[in-house]
Amino acid sequence: MSVSGKKVTIAAATATESDAAAENSPSVIVRGLRRVFGDRAVLDGIDLTLYTGDFIALLGPSGTGKTTLLRILGGLDTADEGKVVVPRARSIVFQEPRLVPAMKVWRNVVLGAPNMRAVKAQAIASLAEVGIEKHANAWPRTLSGGEAQRVALARALATEPGLLLLDEPFAALDALTRIRMHDLLAALCERHRPAVVLVTHDVDEAILLADRVLVLADGNIRLDLPVDIGKPRLQSDPRFLKLRERLLEQLGVVAAAGAGPVEVQPAN
Question: Which residue segment(s) compose the domain that 8 sits in?
Fold first, then answer.
């Protein structure tokens, strides 16, 4: 399709292509991606490849295009130029759970299904995966923040997406709940094996969860850093601390030795 006179290609793999794809075949292909707002290119020639089971985290101050890239991958925004190939089945989890208040929890999991009663067992199975099947018949307003986000994860994974997009899904949670959600997400991704893109401002969260951490700046990927540490990862591990130091340096943040988690603040 054509946008603003520039050529843009956005495609989704068909079910047959997805079924036939090998584990090492690209799941997401982005080439020369540009997105312009006014006279500013928020994304200016992004190239990115993800494989089945890859987990990447996007870091960078606010305004560097992290969420814009995620929205384009999810089909919620359009590119001005470039090529984007993504799996047909995609799911997005936002910072807010975005549950429908007038629907019980299990119905929120299978939202959009043509016959929701027929898939109630599937909904409850998905809730069991995230440890809250006992709340299947509850109303969303009765859930805690962590429970509501577990429902959002169950809903996202119920369709077995080839690409899972996470836009700061744990930012509003307390520290203890956040740790538990990290462990849950890691286990779910290992079981379902989608390609995952996580937008976060938390450097430690990025290192704990991702296989690669990308730093965005000036419309481009400034750093694509592999996280070569086995899981589970400890924040006290010297390799963890070394990666943390390098990422903070790239982000222009100076942290005291032994300091706790650091979140990248919006640029002034």
Answer: 2-94+162-250
